[in-house]
């Protein structure tokens, strides 16, 4: 659990999952450079810090350009009433890290979070090492600093290497250049920006369709009819039931735009539940990718 003595004034505190030096920590530093970043053991702990008023924001990773979605997040969203107020794209520079005196030829095992291992799988095999799953990238670096395991290297950030007194054996160890993680910033208060037709916005929401034939097709029809660009559609089971499927959606539109209001009206007709998570300005990284 986080040290709550650090969070007496939550107005400039942002919570994240992982040990200090995690990529979520980097995302916090880049997005809120003058705020205090507080690490938590799990995603739900970070979200609950915001719900309890011990932090103002939570910085949560939702997908990676190489390894795909962070599946756990979509299950946790049902357990919280927070709003999405911002997105942030963090370029990932995975580093192969070891203790002082260790060379890359000495490495026989590489430990890290499963997402990081997946993003570096080709390079791990190239050096003839095997993967070892650990709970967190920065946690792997912390473990290596505390426990001398011959032949073990870890994948983490340069920040983690500096924090824990380790050596970077190879920078940009990820298999693909441009590896980027998308984060969402969660808040207890909804902070919907004023609608400007010239601005690009993202609206995120969840819904559960009725258990009737072609319900999803009919529910999504309004978005095509009104020309709403759908950026993301994720499905996941609710409470382990195959017939109760929940969906997470990102669309390129402001909640208050007439077209999105009309599309949502059709969606509600075919759905048991629709929950709007928030509208926020599209990140500059997204706009550069589309240009």
Write the layout of secondary structure elements.
Layout (H helix, E strand, L loop, with lengths): L12 E5 L5 H9 L4 E5 L2 H10 L4 E8 L3 E2 L1 H6 L6 E9 L3 E4 L10 E4 L1 H6 L1 H6 L3 E4 L3 H10 L5 E5 L1 H6 L3 E4 L9 E8 L13 E9 L5 H11 L3 E10 L2 E12 L5 H12 L1 E11 L2 H7 L1
Parallel strand pairs: 1-2, 1-3, 7-8, 7-9
Antiparallel strand pairs: 3-4, 3-11, 5-11, 6-9, 6-10, 12-14, 12-15, 13-14
Biggest sheet details = 6 strands, mixed
What's the number of domains? 3
Percent helix range: 25-40%
Question: Which overall shape is indicated by the principal axes computed on the Cα atoms?
Answer: elongated
Rounded mean pLDDT is 90
**CATH homology group of the largest domain:** Periplasmic binding protein-like II
Order of helices and strands: EHEHEEHEEEHHEHEHEEEHEEHEH
Ranges with pLDDT <50 over ≥5 residues?
A: 1-8
User: What is the terminal separation in angstroms?
Assistant: 42 Å
- Computed CA radius of gyration, to the nearest angstrom: 21 Å
- Please, what is the oligomeric state? single chain
What is the CATH architecture descriptor of the largest domain? 3-Layer(aba) Sandwich
**Per CATH, what is the topology of the largest domain?**
D-Maltodextrin-Binding Protein, domain 2
Task: Give a verbal description of the structure.
- There is one protein chain.
- By secondary structure, the protein is of the alpha/beta class.
- It folds into 3 domains: 4-91 and 180-187, D-Maltodextrin-Binding Protein, domain 2 (3-Layer(aba) Sandwich); 95-170, 3-Layer(aba) Sandwich (D-Maltodextrin-Binding Protein, domain 2), CATH 3.40.190; 201-290, 2-Layer Sandwich (Alpha-Beta Plaits).
- The protein has helices spanning 23-31, 43-52, 71-76, 114-119, 121-126, 137-146, 158-163, 215-225, 258-269, 284-290; strands at residues 13-17, 36-40, 57-64, 68-69, 83-91, 95-98, 109-112, 130-133, 152-156, 167-170, 180-187, 201-209, 229-238, 241-252, 271-281.
- The strands form 3 sheets. Strands 1, 2, 3, 4, 5 and 11 form a 6-stranded mixed beta sheet that branches.
- Strand 13 (229-238) and strand 14 (241-252) form a beta hairpin.
- Helix 8 (215-225) packs antiparallel against helix 9 (258-269).
- The relative contact order is 0.15.
